[in-house]
Design goal:
- It contains 13 helices and nine strands.
- Strands 4-6-7-9-8 form a five-stranded mixed sheet.
- The chain has three domains: 187 residues, no CATH class; 66 residues; 144 residues, Heat Shock Protein 90 (2-Layer Sandwich).
- With 440 residues, it is of the alpha+beta class.
- A hairpin with a 5-residue loop joins strand 8 and strand 9.
């Protein structure tokens, strides 16, 4: 099964990724309470303890307004509520405006707490969309520029502190550069992290679906096995009954009908147990699916034959020394993704070569297609990087294959063959591949 089949446009599995999106409201509430307490303490220290004459009424009203908003939010929302992207932007936008008002009353950029302008934009860059980050970044730059010109000076005498225009320009420049750099850096790091987490979630959903299919197939095979004995009994008894009754008897006709229907059931069960695309389900779990390497590769290959390309499996190594391994979902699905990708882009043929030595096992998958795009060859394995031009997928097939192969202890390498086509080399330490049990 190709990755594009699992996560096509509009698939409900894709919607599962959006469940945890957004910012936890309670986290923003806690941060704002810390800001309110810090602002109140700073005003008290400067105005009461140090005796500076500040516009304390106006400043206190701004601090109280944030406290009131926090109380209202806490009462009206559940602790587990998450803000949407737009809601979080509005929340942080208010914090930026409130900080602008406080700094306007307390010295503008000459106030050391002007550094706090970096907080809202950093939170946005690490949690919100690029649109929200740009909006809050521009808001911060406008606020910084406003406070560089318009503000109520701190009540300091010339003997205590003299702030020149050049110094204010320097502070403005530092805050602008800090805002742009920090928001850009935080956005880049968090964006990579979000992409990786989302891709890992999709990989887990893919593997879970594969395991569910395996379980369903195992149940079907088990049912076929269990039904075989009573069905054979019905066939035997109905055949004997049809012979006992006279040919023109109604009972003889019923017995023949019963025998015919039972025979059809037997044929269905036989097909269920021997059909190539369900042969992997002959056992109910990987602990029983203990296969030689070439058999496992052939099993995975059979699932890709529907693409209409010739897929050949070759082996290099002694038959007596051929590794045997458990057909775990990780191994089957990882190899299946690579083979599916090769079969999709091959012109006519895909060649799979298995080579084993005393200490290592290597599987090479080569197709005669156009090969990997040279521009992204070095980035293959990263989520949302499409391995071939124009495939129309999500760019997750290679990432999932690489993750699952590494989970089995192997390493995967992508190259372009000199004679044309793509070349995928997968290698395992033999001791890791032939481990005692799938769970080890």
């Amino acid at each position: 099964m190709a990755i594009s089949d699992l996560f096509s446009s509009g698939d409900k599995s894709r919607e599962a990724l959006t469940v945890s999106e957004g910012v936890r409201l309670q986290s923003l509430v806690y941060i704002r309470w810390l800001a309110v307490l810090g602002q109140a303490f700073a005003l008290f220290l400067v105005h009461v303890t140090l005796g500076f004459d500040l516009p304390i009424v106006e400043a206190s009203l701004l601090v109280a307004a944030s406290a009131v908003v926090n109380v209202l939010v806490t009462i009206s929302q559940k602790p587990t509520a998450r803000l949407s992207d737009s809601g979080a932007i509005i929340y942080l936008f208010y914090d930026a405006l409130q900080l602008t008002g406080l700094l306007y009353l307390t010295g503008g950029l000459t106030n050391p707490f002007s550094l706090l302008f970096l907080v809202p934009v950093t939170i946005s860059a690490t949690n919100l969309s690029l649109r929200g980050t740009v909006f809050l970044g521009l808001t911060t730059l406008v606020a910084i520029s406003f406070l560089a010109i318009f503000y109520i000076p701190l009540p300091l005498s010339k003997e205590q502190l003299v702030v020149s225009d050049i110094y204010i320009v320097a502070i403005w420049s530092a805050l602008v550069i800090g805002t742009v750099f920090l928001s850009g850096y935080a956005w880049r790091i968090s964006s990579d992290s979000r992409r990786m987490n989302e891709a890992l979630t999709i990989a887990r959903l893919s593997l879970a679906r594969e395991q569910q299919l395996s379980a369903v197939g195992g149940i079907a095979a088990a049912a076929a096995h269990e039904l075989g004995t009573p069905l054979n009994t019905i066939l035997l008894v109905s055949e004997e009954l049809s012979r006992e009754f006279p040919e023109d008897s109604d009972h003889a006709e019923d017995a023949r009908l019963l025998y015919g229907q039972a025979r059809k059931c037997a044929e269905v069960l036989e097909q269920l147990s021997t059909k190539p695309d369900t042969s992997r389900f002959l056992q109910t779990d990987a602990h029983h699916n203990y296969l030689p390497l070439h058999s496992l590769l052939a099993l995975v290959r059979d699932k890709q034959m529907e693409k209409g390309k010739e897929i050949e499996v070759l082996t290099h190594g002694s038959v007596e020394e051929e590794p045997k391994l458990y057909a775990t979902p990780e191994l089957m699905y990882g190899l299946g993704n690579v083979m599916s990708n090769a079969a999709e882009f091959a012109r006519n043929k895909v060649t799979i070569t298995a080579d084993w030595r005393e200490k290592n096992v290597k599987v090479t998958i080569q197709d005669d297609g156009p090969g990997f795009n040279q521009e992204i060859l070095d980035r293959l394995g990263e989520p949302y990087t499409s391995s071939r031009a124009g495939n129309g997928g999500m760019g997750l097939g290679v990432f999932i294959a690489q993750m699952l192969i590494r989970h089995t202890g192997g390493n995967i390498d992508f190259k372009n063959n000199k004679s044309g086509g793509a070349l995928v080399i997968i290698q395992w330490p033999r001791s890791q591949l032939e481990k005692a049990a799938p769970s080890n």
